[in-house]
Specification:
With 872 residues, the protein is of the alpha/beta class. The protein has 4 domains: 1-213, Growth Hormone, Chain: A, CATH 1.20.1250; 220-423; 491-700, Vaccinia Virus protein VP39 (Rossmann fold, 3-Layer(aba) Sandwich), CATH 3.40.50.150; 711-846, Tetratricopeptide repeat domain (Serine Threonine Protein Phosphatase 5, Tetratricopeptide repeat). The chain contains 30 helices and 12 strands. The strands form 2 sheets. The chain has an 8-stranded mixed beta sheet with strand order 7-6-5-8-9-11-10-12, with helices on both faces. A 4-stranded antiparallel beta sheet has the order 1-2-3-4, with no helix packed on it. Strand 6, helix 18 and strand 7 (557-562) form a beta-alpha-beta unit. The chain starts with a helix and ends in a 34-residue tail after the last helix.
Amino acid sequence: MLVYALTIFTGAFLLFQVQPLIGKYILPWFGGGPGVWTTCMLFFQVLLLGGYAYAYFTSRWLKPRSQAIVHFALLLAALATLPIIPADSWKPGGGGNPTLQILALLAVCLGLPYFVLSSTGPLMQHWFSRTNPGVSPYRLYALSNFGSLLALISYPFYFETQFTRKAQAALWAWGLAAYAIGCGFCALKLWRTKGAESRGSSDEWGKSEIRNPPFQTLDPRPSTLDRLLWLLLPACASVLLLATTNKVCQDVAVIPLLWVLPLALYLLSFIICFDNPRWYSRFPFALALIAAMAGICWALFKSIEASAFSQIGIYCGGLFVCCMVCHGELYRLKPDPRHLTGFYLTIAAGGALGGLFVAVIAPLIFTDYFELHLGLLLCGLLFLLVCARDRSAGSDKGWRRLFGKVQQRRRLTCVSLSAGLVALGVALGLQTHQLAGARVYRSRNFYGVLTIFKQHDNERNLDYLVLWHGRTMHGMQFLDPQQAGWPTLYYSEKSGVGLALHALPAGQRRIGLVGLGVGTLATYAQAGDYVHIYEINPQVLELATSRFTYLSNCPAKVENTLGDARLSLEREPPQDFDLLALDAFNSDAIPVHLLTKEAFVVYERHLKPNGIIAVHVSNKSVNLEPVVINLARHFNYKVATIDCAPPADKPWILGSVWMLLSRSGEIVNSPAIRLAARPADADLASIPLWTDDFASLFQILCLESGPQKDTEFTDAQFRIAYSLWQQRNFAGAIARFRVALRSLPRSPILLNNLAFMLAICPDASLRNNPEAIQLAERACKLTHYKQAVMIDTLAAAYAEAGRFDDATAMAEKARALATEAGDQDLLQINQKLLVLYRAHKPYHEMMSPGQAEPSAVNPPSNDAEKLVPAAP
């Protein structure tokens, strides 16, 4: 059995390992959205169906030795197609729906190897039964599923982070060679088997004596309804798998981890349900199904208000429960073993049918991701159907305790499930019509869902339109002509890109924009300027020109290019841009290939020697700052990171983080930009330089929530710590804040106080400048560098570490904020601190000898909002 076990395990591992690998190769070429992975999954499911059909028909129609010859010939042909790396000639040339191009690419580069691997499970089990009569082959089926699951789990956590794409492809090719050798040994054993020339058929296979078969002997002729359920139950599970993957990737991030997690749960449900009937019982899973559907409905209604953690947990948990129901009921409908290959073939057909619906049909008939709603309803309907037709429905102990007699509990079971299904339909219907009154447009294509809402600002009596891509706002414009030219959302005059555009010398500026939105940045263009916009989604360009007026009202010359921005720039002659704004990263579909070393080589060719690259890195799911910092260091760029907080009096302005890169310090270090800039959030220890061959979003995934605030708690902790500090128990005061941070680890106030103590503690042995800087930077980041006292703490920590230029820059920033707020006391403190830092003196030198407090600073207020640096 060993050679069969190794061959089946290797084939299953390679089959599922190549899926995220090939996805990483082609994802950047086609927009980086979840539609690419959905199309890949359709290809994999159709090829899996083809492999199962090949195993089914060859086992019926060909003699065993003929099977061996045919399969080995296909293996040699598959090896001849290596490597699987797609050629550059497959790169798309423009916008539009690339589904057919992706399918063609996969068929040419991967089709034959994947087809051969997909037939491994049923074909090798059939050969094993021929060479080992009387021994059950079903343990090999479990081993196959284990290999598949191991491949999925290991990819995002190990292979993606440890190897380049080329190395992964090379390892996979060597794995395919090892698999071919294993198949050769299996074919040799089959060739030498006595009676190998007799025709192999599924009937002969099914009639062979099998010890402890997991399939009981049932009616040898399954009914038409049974066969239909064999198709619909796996189709429903497949729809839910792909719909959940779409939803999670759209709302969190398009990364291999969120590709393989739903797929792993889907596969795990297969393993559990087909291992033993005791793992699936209707009553507990009926309750779990109700809870899962209620949770998914809640997450759909909450939308962007739900955290990334809760969304991943709810959607993936709900998917697992639904798949357990579908596959558990599928196992209950298992046929006599003589129909085994036909049963597997129908299951594969159902999976392919579900993939076809989500990848091809749903984008054509739906204006949103409604296949998740449809999949949930279908799951409930199929569960009701199998319960209604089963005379033993309600026979579980749970049903008996709940509903009593057999007929009564069967009737009440069906009535209860019907009522629940109606309630689910109503809830999902309400969700699909959520905000329908304000919605004026919604459409869906390969790149996602675009929705336009018309809303009204009651306080200012202004109407405006908002464009959403999935759950990310991509543009906003007021309808009143007087306000229609206002820059909104992430593009205010105080944002990084706004400051950069104002800092450019006047007169015939050349501006490149990667990512259109609604064209808001065109409002900064002047007569004589040239603006070149690169946009991959043709619907975005259509809406920007038909529903919004930023482009039509722009006095500059505007040119639009449809298609992937990097591919378009590679084909164009140098554009001599004064500024190139990369605005394609604030949604959840991150086009990784726009932030690689090779991409920046392309940008440099189109940039003037002193030009600026402005990168919009605002994102809830991933932290792109270390990636950009690495690129800046590699290309010797100066960097200014501008974190613009949303002003309270202008709700049409959202917070944004822009990074400005230039080899010239004239603009990046100009007074306005220097004053607005903050230190970059760069954890370079574990983030390598991104290249086309190696880039991992998993390493920069950030699921942390926003700042925590509990004034009563923080004020109490401050009083205790301040009392200890006054008693010169500095270690006790520091320990008190450490304990408090365990309860509120994202409290800017607690972080700020601990940072200040660690930076300027009179007991030099207790100072910890690296930790103080880390805590202070975190506190400032949580408050968008808009709290002067926290910026002063960071300045003090920099000064204690000898980083006086950084300390001076932060002190100047704090002084500007104090001036803007009219806080004269804080302004006086900042003036003294600036003198100190410019003289290259640390903060603790302001403290009088023998005192625990800085002598030039007033004692702190007990108000937890006004703590240090007014001395702890």
